[in-house]
Amino acid sequence: MPVSPTSPGSPLRSGPGREEMASRTSRCRLWADGAASWVVAGGGMAVVASILGILIFIVFEVAPLLRGAQVHGDREFVLSLPEPLAFLTDEHRSHAVVLAADGGLHTVDLASGVEIARTELQELDGGVRVAHAAPGQPLLTAATGGGRVVAVPIAWNVSFDADRRVVRAAVGPSVIFELDPDRRPLGAFAARVDDAGSGLAAAQLADGRLALVGRNVTENPITEEREETWSRHELPDPGALSALVLSTDGLNLFGGTEDGELVWWRIHAGRPADPQRFGDEGPAVTVLTLLIGDRSLVVGRADGGIGIWFPVRGPDETVDLTPIRDFPPLPRAVRLLAPSLRDKCFLAQDDSGLLGLYHSTSHRLLWTGPSPIPGASALFFTPKADGLAVAGAGKMALMRVHNPHPEVSLRALFGKVWYEGYERPDYVWQSTGGTDDFEPKLSLTPLLVGTLKGTFYSLIVAIPLGVAGAMYASQFMHPRVKHYVKPTVEIMAALPSVVLGFLAGLWLAPRMERVLPGVLLSLLAAPLAILIASFALRAAPSRWRRRLAPGSELALYLVALALTLWLCLQASPLLEALWLGGDFRDWLMRATGLRYDQRNAVVVGLAMGFAVIPFIFSIAEDAFSNVPRSLVSGSLALGADRWQTVTRVVLPTASPGIFSAIMIGFGRAVGETMIVLMATGNTPIMDWNPFNGFRTLSANIAVEIPEAPHGATLYRTLFLAALLLFALTFAVNTAGEAVRQRLRRRYAEL
C-alpha cells in the first residue's frame, strides 16, 4: 500500500507541524501585542510628561510675580560733616552730594564714607534752615534764614580709566530766588529749575502770604547772548502751610495745611490762579511729594496716614484733586518721602523710625522694616530704584532694594484700577507707553473677556452648523453623496488659520461692512428658503421626483440657499435706504448706542466658526454613525418616523460624542491666535457688542512677547496669561469630560 505524503511515516514530510506553527504564531503575536502596548503606553506617558513639563515651565516663569520686595542692609558709615538736610546719589550708588546745615555741598564716596570734595554755596544769609531733593530732578533746593530759596542742579559725569569706572559730581550754577525782600525766615517752600536755568520758587512768608518768584532765561541763537527776566506774585494767606511741592513743568503747585487740607494752585505764565481746596479737616499734612510724571501726589500725615491724590476730570468738565487710594498707616507721623525715578514706587519713614516701600498703581505695601537711622533727616531713592539711602546727624546708611515686579497685584491684574488721567476705575491693558513716566496697565480681565467673546460668537456659528450638518449627513444623506461630503468638510480643517485670518481681515471685513443689513436678513431668509424648497419638492408630481437621482435633492437646497443669500446681499443697499436712514453704522449708533468697527466679533465669528466646523462635524458625525442600527430599526419598527427616531433615539444616544465634539471645538476656538489677531483690530476692550473688536489671551501673547524684555514684569505677565489659558482649557475639558461620562452612563442602557 503506498504511503500518503501527509501521513506520519511519509518521507516527504518536513518542517514543524501545525501545532508547532500555531504555537510559534501565538508567541509572535503575544510579543507584538506586548511591544505595541508598551509603545502606546510610553507614547501616552510622554504626552502627559510633555504637558506637565510645559505647565511646570510656565509656573516657574510666573512664580517671581508673587514675591514681594526684598530690602537688605548694605553699608553704614559716619559722616564727618554737619547734619545732612538733603542729598542725591548717582545711579551706581558710588557717590553722593550732600547739602548740609552749614550751607556746603559735600561730595561723599559711598564706598568709604570719606568726603572727597566740598562746594560752598554763596548768598546764604541766615544759613540753611530746610532743604529738599526736588522730586524727579537732580536738584537740591534749600530755604535760608534770610528769605531766599537756593536751587542747585547736580550732574554726574561718568568716565572710564582703563577698566575702572570714574564718577564725578558736577555742581551747576546756583539759582537764587528772592522770596522775602524783608529777609525773614521762610515757611514751607518748593522750587524747580530746568536745564536752561529758568525756574520757579514758591514759599510761605512769615506774615502768611504765599510768594511766587519766577526766572525766565532766553538765549539769542545768533549771538548766544542770554537774557534773564524775573517775575513776582503774592497771594493772600492760604492758611498755615506745612508742605509745598511744585511739578517739574512749573504749572502746578500743591500745598498741605496743618488742618489736613490740600491746596492746589494752577500756574500759567508764572502767574498763579486762585487756589482750590480739597479734603476735610483732619490730621495735619506733614510732607508732600510727586511721583514720576507729576500726576500722582503722595500725602503724608501726622497720624501716619499715606494717601495718593491726583486730578480727575468730572462730568461737568471740571478737574478736581481727588483721593484715589490710601495705604496702611505708619505708627507715627510721616516725616520723609522719596519717590522712585523709574516707576510709581516711593519710600516713606515716620517718627518711630519705621520705613516702608510702596507702589501706587498696584496699591501695594511692598516692604516695611526698621530704618537704619530712626531719626533720619533725609531720604533718597537711588536713580535705578535698586537701593535707598538715608542720612541723619553724623551718619549715613545704604540699603539694597530688589523689587523687580512692583506693578503686579491681584487688584492690578483682575480688578478695577484708577489710573492717572482716567475719570473712574477701569479694567485696562496697555503694556507700553511713549514716555518714561508711563503707568503700566496690566489688567488681564479684558483679555479674558475677549477670549470668551471670540469663543462665544464662533461657537454660535459652528455648533448649529456642525452638529446639524453631522446629523443630516449621518441620518438623512444618501451614502453616495456622503462619500464626497464628509471628506470635503474634513479637508477644511487643513486650511491654515493665517489664511483664514488674512481673508477675514482684508476681504470679508470691508465687504461685511457694506452688506451687513443683508447678512442679518439672510439669517431669517435662509431657513425659510430651505423650508420652501422642501415643500416644493414634496408638492412636485411623483413622476418628476422619481426621475431625480437619490441624494440629488441636496443640489436643490444648495441652489435655493445660494439664490436667497444673493438676493439678500443685493437688497442690502435698499434696506439701508428705506429703513436705516441710508447708513447702517449711523443708525446703529443712534438707535442702540453701539459703535460699529470694521473688524469685529461678527467677522471673527464667521471666520473662526468656519475653522471650528470641521472638527465638530467630523466627531459628531462619527457619534451619530456609531449608534447601533438595532436601536434605529427597533424605533422604526414600533411606528416612529425617521425624524422622531433621530431626535428621540439617535440624538440622545450620540449625545456623549456630540458633547465631546463641542468641547474640542471650544478648545480650538479658545486657543486660536491668527484669526483673532488679523480680524479683530486687537483692541483690549471689555464689551460684548458683536460689532466691536476685542483681544484674546493667545493673540495678546503673540503680539507682546517679541517685545517683552526677558524676565521683566510684562514678560512674566504674558506667561501668566498663558497659564490662565492653560487653566481655562483644562477646567472646561475636565468639566466636559465629566458631563460626557454622565451622559454615557445615562444612555448606555438604550
Descriptive notes:
By secondary structure, the protein is an alpha+beta fold. It folds into 2 domains: 70-418, Methylamine Dehydrogenase, Chain H; 445-747, MetI-like fold, CATH 1.10.3720. Strands 6, 7, 8, 9 and 10 form a 5-stranded antiparallel sheet that branches. Residues 1-14 have low confidence and may be disordered.
Protein traits:
single chain, about 750 residues, alpha+beta, Methylamine Dehydrogenase, Chain H, MetI-like fold, 2 domains, five-stranded antiparallel beta sheet, about 40% helix, elongated, disordered N terminus
Quick summary:
The chain is 39% helix and 27% strand. With 750 residues, the chain is of the alpha+beta class. Strands 6, 7, 8, 9 and 10 form a five-stranded antiparallel β-sheet that branches. Strands 15, 16, 17, 18 and 19 form a five-stranded antiparallel β-sheet that branches.
Q: What is the CATH class of the largest domain?
A: Mainly Beta
**Beta-strand share of residues:** 25-35%
Counted by DSSP, the helix tally is: 15
Tally of domains: 2
End-to-end span in angstroms?
A: 66 Å
Structural class: alpha+beta
CATH superfamily of the largest domain: YVTN repeat-like/Quinoprotein amine dehydrogenase
CATH topology of the largest domain: Methylamine Dehydrogenase, Chain H
Major β-sheet profile: 5 strands, antiparallel
Our Rg estimate from Cα atoms comes to 39 Å
Mean pLDDT: 88
Q: Which outline best applies?
A: elongated
Number of strands: 32
Query: Helix coverage percent of residues?
Result: 25-40%
> Segments where pLDDT lies below 50 for 5+ residues?
1-14
CATH architecture of the largest domain: 7 Propeller
